[in-house]
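Troubleshooting log. The previous run stalled partway through. Resubmitting the same two chains, unchanged.
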Amino acid sequence: MSDAAKATADARFEFAAYDADAGERGGYSNYSYWRSTINVFLKNKTAVFLLFVLGGLLLFTFIQPLIPGQKNPLEIFIDPATGIQYRNQRPSAEFWFGTNSIGQDLWARIWSGTRTSLLIGLLVGVVEMVIGIAYGALWGYARKLDRAMTEIYNVLNNIPTTIVLMLLAYILKPSFWTMVIAMCATGWIALARFVRNQIVIIRDREYNLASRCLGTPAGRIVQRNILPYLVSVIMLKTALSIPGTIGWEVFLTYIGLGLPLSIPSLGNLVNEGRLIMMAPELRYQLIFPTIVVSIITISFYILGNAFSDASDPRNHV
Amino acid sequence: MLKYSIKRLLQSLVTLFIVVTAVFMLMRLLPVEGYFGDAYDKLTESQREAILQKMGLLDPWYVQIGNFYAGLLRGELGVSSIYRRDVPVLEVIAPRVPYSVRFGLAATAMSIFLGLAMGIHMTRHKGRLWDKTWTAYIVFVTSVPSAVYLLFVQLYGTSLFKVPLLFDKYRPSSWILPVVSIAVTGIAGYAMWMRRYMVDELNKDYIKLARAKGLSDSAIMTRHVMRNAYVPMAQYLPAAILATISGSIYIESLYSIPGMGGLLVDVIQRQDNPLVQALCLIYSSVGILGLYLGDLLMAAFDPRIQLVKSEGAR
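Second attempt completed without errors. Output:
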């Protein structure tokens, strides 16, 4: 080899200086889990549309009473000619969705009820999610606490909700907040069990075992190894719990522990409609609230599934 | 494992004691007026006192609860005080249980069988027509309140299939609609979760490997995807079967089936304390047992799950 060639080779293969930060730079990626999740979610046009539908629905329930010419949902309308209430009037220009059996305007009642029920659903859904996930994660992961937390679950789960609700209704007056408190107090239990089951399934998988061997603290394993793994199912469950709350409210009204008729809600509207549905000409009183309930539930169901799909990192690329 | 089971079941007895005591106390906190129902205004003060005295409600609480547990240890659950006055609690409950259990088991079997089949079918046709059709069914069932569509099932089901409107012990054809009605909701639930778990599983890398190895689609489904998808469902299975004892509140009132559905809600509202306590004792035992058996079944389905501490686990 000639001297000249040797010189160029040396210049090309010089030792690099040691750089302590280089390792950090190599490990860096601008991938952000939540940003990617949201990006994938936004690509789903149906889901985005339904998000707007739900947002619009909630917004409209607040705007509707401010529109001029709207009726008071609690006012009983009386025919000035005869002095009798407008009972069971079919939908008309005056009463857009008709009137109910005591002459209240169904259009105004439905929007007022949607507002109440959606707010209950959202509030209870968020509280359920926070308490349920926290309790479920601890219950599933901490083997030492397992026995104690299982027993707490058993106690809370087996005291009938009806008793709790009756006591609450007796101590406090039945109202919006009583309903929210009662549902929050009992609703998180099912989610906690769900999260716990999921965690029990994956807590001893090899990658968690490896993390533990490397000395990763338990809190970090739960937050980084386990919960992200479960985002998709937890999101679906939470999205369903909001319409679930509305369905639950319908059920509570059915057994006579729902909101009083002076606070319209989708629960008592559906129940009122159910009572008179044997008369086909009065079925509009059942169909209108049911349509609203269905729109809300369908939206949440599809949103939940879309978000579940988006939250799986394997779908991110 | 045996040691774990024994410990856990002993623990359950303590839990049961706490639940029953809590229910006992909570019932005593309810207003006294509730014991009389509509008759409250018609009774004089001394008549009310006499009735309460007879029910033993005027004793101090520790005497009441002492009497209750003493009775329980002798195997007596007491007599119904309001719902069916002076009839032993067990005689009120016993004839109702078989109806609820029979309907419940038939419906649960139907839900699991059809629900899982539907979920698997949806996964295999993910994103195509069948997936969308069944999704529409699930969305419909979850979105329309069951109080509404079950009424329509009863209304149109009876005229369409020429079956009786109400339940009749002696006519087996009257059993069809209640079972179908209970199952309609169950099928949707099982199918939805089966699909979710299978789709999540299908996305995993080991499935890609299995496919690259040349494993057939059906082998991947049965040997890998389904086995993993069953695990989270297994936890709820024993509880679902045991819970059939409590009946279905809507269905039983719709078809007037003399079962357990609604009995608890009814007796709580009428404050029939002995019946409430007995029912809570039964339901809690069943609930606790369901959770325990669910854990065992889940561990049996997936050998990686360890309920007891062993090497390598915490």
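Takeaways: The mean pLDDT of chain B is 84. Chain B has 14 helices and no strands.
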